[in-house]
Design a protein that fits this description.
The complex is a heterodimer of chains A (about 110) and B (about 120). With about 110 residues, chain A is mainly beta. Chain A has strands at about 5, 10-15, 20-25, 30-40, 45-50, 55-60, 60-65, 70-75, 85-90, 100, 105-110. Chain B is mostly beta strands. Classes of the chains: A mainly beta (about 110), B mainly beta (about 120). At the A-B interface, strand 4, strand 5, strand 9 and strand 10 of A face strand 5, strand 6 and strand 10 of B.
Chain lengths: ~110, ~120
């Protein structure tokens, strides 16, 4: 069965304390892996798309990497405004609507 | 602003009542998705349209749920005879898919409609 898991479930960091979030997946025919940021009470905000193992994308303090079985979201020197839930989703091949499977998310809190 | 919009943002209703939500996608996007999200979970797929055609429905979508996208633009999601278990955030997303978009089918989400069934 297709599955996306994320760890840790929650993470508390001090401002400036770098860390990584993990997204592990078992899907048949991965077309792409997506990272989203979600603030409380709001819809997910698109961050990155990764398509191939070895690919990396960066945006400000965030860097996403992809291997054949997992993706990491590295946060360098985080600030309190980086506090949010980070969701990953995988896009599968040869499906229509159910082609996006989301993980449960990692709740990140960055303390000043 | 050309982002995805949803209306209303919040809805409180009594059990047994019907509710309808609206989603306006990004104008050039041909695909529109509905998801449900409960606290502490990622979005769960409900249904999906390509233009005006509803191509797939999740088994999560009971007979009390119906969605339409009559002209291939905005979409509505109706829940009949609401139950307390329907309380959730209902998210709409849109994307541009097809030969010209290549591999890039990023889904862009609206702000969601939070439903509370009393």
């Amino acid at each position: 069965e297709d599955q996306v898991t994320q760890s840790p479930e929650a993470l508390r960091l001090q401002e400036g304390e770098s860390s990584s979030l993990n997204c592990s997946y078992t899907v048949s025919g991965l077309r792409g892996l997506f990272w989203y940021r979600q603030d409380p009470g709001k819809g997910p905000e698109f961050l990155f798309t990764l398509y191939s193992a070895g690919e990396e994308k960066e945006k400000e303090r965030l860097k996403a990497t992809l291997t054949k079985k997992e993706s990491f979201l590295h946060i360098t020197a985080p600030k309190p405004e980086d506090s949010a839930t980070y969701l990953c989703a995988v896009e599968k091949s040869y499906n229509y609507g159910q082609n996006f499977v989301f993980g449960p998310g990692t709740r990140l809190s960055v303390l000043p | 602003d050309t982002g995805v919009s949803q209306d209303p943002r919040h809805k409180i209703t009594k059990r047994g009542q019907n509710v309808t939500f609206r989603c306006d996608p990004i104008s050039e996007h041909n695909r529109l998705y509905w998801y449900r999200q409960t606290l502490g979970q990622g979005p769960e797929f409900l249904t999906y349209f390509q233009n005006e055609a509803q191509l797939e429905k999740s088994r999560l979508l009971s007979d009390r749920f119906s969605a339409e996208r009559p002209k291939g633009s905005f979409s509505t999601l109706e829940i009949q005879r609401t139950e307390q278990g329907d309380s959730a955030m209902y998210l709409c997303a849109s994307s541009l898919a097809g030969a010209t978009s290549g591999r890039k089918e990023t889904q862009y989400f609206g702000p969601g409609t939070r439903l509370l069934v009393l």
